[in-house]
Amino acid sequence: MVDTGNAEIAISWWERGVQKEKDGSMNDAIRFYREALKTHEGVEKLYRKKLFEEHELEKKLEQLHLDSIDSKNETAPPGDQAEADEDDSQKDPCWLLDILPPDVLSRIVHYIVLQSGESWLNLSLTCSTFNNLCFHEMDPYRTFAHLIYPKQHYDEMAMDLNGISNIGIWEKEFWGPNYRKMLMERPYVKFGGIYISVVNYLRYGANQDGSRSWMNPIHMITYYRYFRFYPDGGCLRLLTTDEPSMVVPHFSKDTPPRNSEMCRWSLGFDHGFGHLTITRSSSKYTFVEELQIKDQGTRIHQRLKWLSSVIIDKEGEVTECSMKKEKPFFFSRVRSYLPSSAAH
What distance in Å separates the CA atoms of residue 144 and residue 153, rounded to the nearest whole number? Predict the structure, then answer.
């Protein structure tokens, strides 16, 4: 049961805070908001409800004025009205969303999608209204696709071999206007985080001289591979025994860690359009690593599966590296990596 006296006082404080915020006096606004919350902890919801009721009253008065002649004919039967009121009372409405027009809500979704895919998902979970706008309309999928796919780098030779001269035309031929299907079927490299591969294996050691043990010691070896991709086609690569907690916070091409290497990456059209090639060169060798972008359960394009790793010398001789111990990479989102409007 709401204490009417306290509620009215709290709303009054809150309204003064809103006015101060509009005037640009944030310190005063915060002070009034605090007073309102001290008076009634649910004041914000009460304030929104009051706005909604005032908005509804305005609409009814306007409708009454416009349709006064036909108002009797349009009035619902008492029984139906009572049933409708009962249904409405069981709902927990979002007052502000009911006030805002659909085009404003769609713009909100648009800007949230531009922030990150994670923000897009979180917004959809807030209420049924945003869930419908986020995942039952094509616009958010189009916004997301137009954000991420222009940043993908496709190998020019692979494009020539597949007879593709224009990526845009190729997109339309495969998916047309169905951007949701495109996002599900067309892999892409993610930039708002890091790909990590963890490799564990056992190594048998030797006994020390003079030891009477019948068994050789066994060592558990753990090492990590890190990939961080950039929209300019660069990829920061590191092989180390350092754990993610030591590497991830500072893993950047601006401050590259010791023993890291800057590579180039590109996508091909094999393996369901998810053929990823990473290359780097030294004075004597060229290193080429090929992986496939795959799903991880319900998380699309979240995993990198090894295909091959080769070393090419100056004479063109190719040496294949063993993939026996290697493990796939898994993508982990890192908030500090997200640039402005990087939604993936």
Answer: 17
CA–CA–CA angle 313, 316, 322 (5° rounding): 60
- Which residue is associated with the tokens 């294996």? 201
Identify the CA nearest to 236 among candidates 307, 334, 327.
334
Cβ burial of 301 (10 Å; 0-12, 13-18, 19+) is buried
**Cβ contacts of residue 231 below 8 Å, gap of 6+?**
151, 191
Q: Can you say how many angstroms the Cα of residue 289 is from the centroid of all Cα atoms in its chain? A: 27
Per-residue pLDDT of the chain (344 residues; tens, 9 = 90+): 456 678 888 888 888 888 887 777 777 888 888 888 888 888 888 888 877 777 666 666 556 555 554 444 444 444 444 444 444 444 455 666 767 788 889 999 999 999 888 889 889 888 888 888 999 999 999 999 999 999 999 998 888 888 888 898 899 999 999 999 999 999 999 999 999 999 988 776 665 655 555 555 666 789 999 999 999 999 999 999 999 999 999 999 999 999 999 999 999 999 889 999 999 999 899 999 999 999 998 889 999 999 999 999 999 899 999 998 899 999 999 988 876 444 45
